[in-house]
């Protein structure tokens, strides 16, 4: 992870194509939804792919998001009192979010890999997962969705 140098040739081309799929406008909509869903306590990221990645990287915001879609008393992800600082704990928190999202109904093909977020390999995949989660929450119409229902497709 730490000793990753620049990409060359085909690796650079592939990474460039992946990065072009990231949608800045979609990022704004997802941030608005996450803040509306979880409350202002989650804060806001700096604009752009890197700020969005740093905001979500430790898994706490994602865990709060998925927990907010469940009624009180049945939260699927345990959130530690202090945000995890060790890499494997952060990745474990992201993995718990991914498992909870799949249990909520997000299709496996719409779920990003932990490394996509943690190393910012494919932030567009992270956006796709959050869009699928939001669309499911709107569709379920169980009273746990907060925000503008027009932000997502039913």
TrEMBL record:
Domain of life of the source: Eukaryota
Classification via InterPro entries: Calponin-like, CH_dom, CH_dom_sf, SM22_calponin
UniProt cross-references to SMART domains, sorted A to Z: CH
Protein name: TAGL protein
The family this protein is said to belong to: Belongs to the calponin family.
Gene: Tagln
Calponin-homology (CH) domain mapped to chain residues: 24-137
Pfam families in the cross-refs: CH
């Amino acid at each position: 992870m730490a000793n990753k140098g620049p990409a060359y040739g085909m690796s650079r081309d592939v990474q460039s194509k992946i990065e072009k799929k990231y949608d800045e406008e979609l990022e704004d909509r997802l941030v608005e939804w996450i803040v509306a869903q979880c409350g202002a306590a989650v804060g806001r990221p700096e604009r752009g792919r890197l700020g969005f990645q740093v905001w979500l990287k430790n898994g706490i915001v994602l865990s709060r998001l998925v927990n907010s879609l469940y009624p009180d008393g049945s939260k699927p992800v345990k959130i530690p009192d202090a945000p995890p600082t060790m890499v494997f704990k952060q990745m474990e928190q992201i993995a718990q979010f991914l498992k909870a999202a799949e249990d909520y109904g997000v299709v496996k093909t719409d779920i990003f890999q932990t490394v996509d977020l943690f190393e910012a390999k494919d932030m567009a995949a992270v956006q796709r997962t959050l869009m699928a989660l939001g669309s499911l929450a709107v569709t379920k119409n169980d009273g746990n969705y907060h925000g503008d229902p027009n932000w997502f497709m039913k």
